Amino acid sequence: MPHFSVRSLFARPPLFWTRRFAAISLLCVVASALTSATLLSKYVAERMIRHNAELARDFVGSLMRMHRGDQFFLNRQDTRGMESLFVELSRMPGLGHANVFDTGRRVVWSTATDAIGRDAGANHELDAALTGRLEVESELLETASFIKPEHAFLRNDARDAVEVYIPVFDSGSKVVGVIELYMLPEGLLNDVHEMTRFVWIACVLSGLLTYLALVWLVMQADRQIARQQRTIVANESLAAVGDMASAVAHGLRNPLGAIRSSAELIAMGPEREMAGDIMSEVDRLQGWIARLLAYAQQGGRALGPVRLDELLNHLVSQHAARMDRQGVAVHCDWPAQLPQAQADAPALEQALDNLIANALDAMPQGGELRLSVEPRGRGLRVTVADTGVGISPEDLERVFTPFHTTKRTGLGVGLPLARRSIERLGGSLRLESAPGTGTRALLDLPLNPPPSSDRP
After folding, report:
1. pLDDT, greater one: 414 or 373
2. What pLDDT digit, counting tens, does each position of 124-135 carry?
3. Is residue 121 a contact partner of residue 149, using CB atoms and an 8 Å limit?
4. Rg (CA), the chain
5. How far apart are CA 99 and CA 112, in angstroms?
6. Which pLDDT score is estimated for 63?
7. Are 125 and 163 in contact (CB under 8 A)?
8. How far apart are the C-alpha atoms of 160 and 149, rounded to whole Å?
9. Which of 83, 232, 313, 360 is surrounded by the most beta carbons within 10 Å?
10. Which of 420, 417, 393 is nearest to 406 (CA)?
């Protein structure tokens, strides 16, 4: 089993950093989503709870003005109307407990009579309210760090209570007391919890969508970089092939010509059969040189109309003798009214000839060769199929790599040359094969190829 570690995750070649980016971006997106969800949920809860506290302040302020409640703090002897005020105060919807403090921080009235007369003790919110500010405290906003004396009068289910400290002003805008409300607005609390869940779900989904979009973009960039890398490697191989082809052509063509001329002279005598073998091998070597030069050639030739049916029939006739020797049956299938393709005729002929030759190489003991052409969209699909030995998945991935070959006498430039010739015409070439099932070469050729300057 291969050893896996965090270090091995980051120890990747520069062009294969998708996994590294996925891990780092996942951490960043999760941290961002958690932070956003926490801050947004806290902000929403704070705004909703504070808005509810402002409504309570307005309600209490209306009661105080209606019953002149500020007089109770100024003159404790004048209690006219205070009983009705406190009764209405205790009937507020969702009220769990209420205290009324004077400026000396003592409870002067409470829904719990045992609390009247007690000191407020440590209470930061009360101190702030005595300065004239509306104060709100809730476990939903921040966990309380200390216990207040009035907590003893709360029910056990009041841990989510919202404490509202409402300052009471006299006619001169001076704080004369504070009213403390412990409210249990069930509807508000449910809305806060529901909104918090919504914020978390939205942040998680948006984070997930962002992460998937980032990974998809990086994967696309990684594929593009890999394609560019393969193009660079192919161009470097092409440059090497060009140099090698020039050297081979210069160094071998003249000696091969002399050897063939000598063999032709020998063929006039009794050693005719041996001379024929020499000429055959010389022709094979010259064919290798021609393919090398064709593969190294830059640019394209002039385009013109090409009848694929006539071209394929011509190629079949050229390989007819070999087909008879190997026992290969050929089947041709294309419509009678086949549109002409605009192509570089020599390059297309060379590509198709190479595909047919490869198919015959795969059937040394006989088989079937099927050639077909069919219109497809705005182009033509040419299929060259054989019933030969097939290609393994490992070799199928590398068949278009220059100098890769599985043949003992192969050069490894035939299929790369064929693909390069087709791509110059704006088409594509791919193979479908498996061991023992034969091979299909699928050549897609557009009827109107791009201009020469746009070709690879």
Report:
1. 373
2. 888 899 998 998
3. yes
4. 45
5. 8
6. 81
7. yes
8. 17
9. 360
10. 393
